[in-house]
Amino acid sequence: MPDFLFNGPSDAPITLVLAHGAGAPMDSPFMETIAEGVAQAGIGVARFEFPYMCRRRTTGSRGAPDPSTVLIQSWRDTIDQLGGGHRLVIGGKSLGGRIASMIADDAAVRGLVCLGYPFHPPGKPGQTRVRHLEHLRTPTLIVQGTRDSLGKSDEVVKYKLSSSIRIEWLEDGDHSFRPRALSGRSEADNLNAAINHVVGFVNRLRDAA
């Protein structure tokens, strides 16, 4: 695989840079759907992989994600390779978005998009990952399923989060936005809603420049 996967116009005024979640690569069906959907709205999208996921491609070994220091440096290197934060919105799926949120302010990016933010580890709601989100200055969009096991709507409402963060809820969605059949919604419904939220957010940042 190349270092980056690109979708959409190469001369777009803002590029959305997405990193994958802990268990699936940058070309997973989820990542493909989001990237292609956002690109169809005329927004440039770039995807990359953390070192541990690159190793999986060459060795086939499903090792654990890299230490946070490595993941953070990978994001910093990616931002530098793409010309700096002034024309980038960064984020991604779960782990990818969480690590992006940790460096967004320092990297001076235009915005942050988290697709299924892991507010706490699976089954451990007391171990929250929100302290740095209390003072986040970067304009931020979090798209979250209402029954996400890593941050349900009734849990997240209790957290103290920065006023720069906007959360859009996908009805009955799990951590990958999939709803139950009994909800009357489909996975495609929620993915399309997520894409629309992201497109609207990026376009507002563009227009505000």
Describe the fold and architecture:
The protein has 209 residues and is of the alpha/beta class. It has a single domain (5-208), classed as Alpha/Beta hydrolase fold, catalytic domain (Rossmann fold), CATH 3.40.50. Helix content is 35%, strand content 17%. It has 6 helices and 7 strands. It has helices spanning 29-39, 51-59, 68-81, 95-107, 153-156, 187-208; strands spanning 5-7, 15-19, 44-48, 88-93, 111-115, 140-145, 165-170. Helix 1 packs across helix 6 and helix 3 crosses helix 4. It starts with a strand and ends with a helix. The model has no long low-confidence stretch (mean pLDDT 96).
Domain module tally: 1
Radius of gyration of CA atoms, rounded to a whole number: 16 Å
Which CATH architecture would you pick?
Answer: 3-Layer(aba) Sandwich
Strands in their spatial order, largest beta sheet: 1-3-2-4-5-6-7
What is the CATH third-level topology name?
Rossmann fold
Helix content: 25-40%
Share in β-strands: 15-25%
Any idea of the CATH class? Answer: Alpha Beta
Oligomer: single chain
CATH superfamily: Alpha/Beta hydrolase fold, catalytic domain
Overall, the morphology is: globular
Secondary-structure element order, N to C: EEHEHHEHEEHEH
The averaged pLDDT comes out at 96
End-to-end distance = 34 Å
Write the layout of secondary structure elements.
Layout: E1 5-7, E2 15-19, H1 29-39, E3 44-48, H2 51-59, H3 68-81, E4 88-93, H4 95-107, E5 111-115, E6 140-145, H5 153-156, E7 165-170, H6 187-208
Parallel strand pairs: 2-3, 2-4, 4-5, 5-6, 6-7
Antiparallel strand pairs: 1-3
